[in-house]
Amino acid sequence: MKILTAQQVKERLNENKEVHLVMTLGPSAFNKCHIPGSKNVWDIKTALKIFAKEDEIIVYCTDQVCLASYYAYQQLEREGYHNIWRFAGGLREWSLSGFPLEAHS
């Protein structure tokens, strides 16, 4: 499993606008708090419809203890996606790094 830190995620987002940053928790969690520019995809069927196998995808959830991004990574990998990363620190590490978060009402 390829893991990124908050700083590495920030750099990838700044360097490549084609990176898909994906929060793997459900809509209520996404609406409450997410990294700006994230997509909310919490099930594999939707992910398979949205992303091409060659897309660069970074999955995240709340923190290292949360396994939603871990399972999303595993499912994508089983489906033949290889340009995927897990931002294991998720929302917690992002916030502690001083990077902005947003919410939707």
Short description:
The protein has 105 residues and is of the alpha/beta class.
What does this structure look like?
The protein is of the alpha/beta class. It has a single domain, classed as 3-Layer(aba) Sandwich (Oxidized Rhodanese, domain 1), CATH 3.40.250. It contains five helices and four strands. The protein has helices at 6-15, 27-32, 44-50, 68-78, 90-96; strands at 20-23, 39-40, 57-60, 84-87. Strands 2-1-3-4 form a four-stranded parallel beta sheet, with helices on both faces. Helix 2 links the parallel strand 1 (20-23) and strand 2 (39-40). The protein is globular, with a radius of gyration of 12 Å. The termini are far apart. The model has no long low-confidence stretch (mean pLDDT 94).
Supply database-style keywords.
4-stranded parallel sheet; globular; 5 helices; alpha/beta; Oxidized Rhodanese, domain 1; 105 residues; 13% strand
Helix and strand string, N-terminal first?
Answer: HEHEHEHEH
Helical content band: 25-40%
Number of helices: 5
Structural class: alpha/beta
Q: In CATH terms, what is the fold-level topology?
A: Oxidized Rhodanese, domain 1
Question: What does the average pLDDT come to?
Answer: 94
Rg estimate, integer Å? 12 Å
Low-pLDDT runs: none
- Overall, the morphology is globular
Domain count, please report it.
1
N/C terminus separation: 34 Å
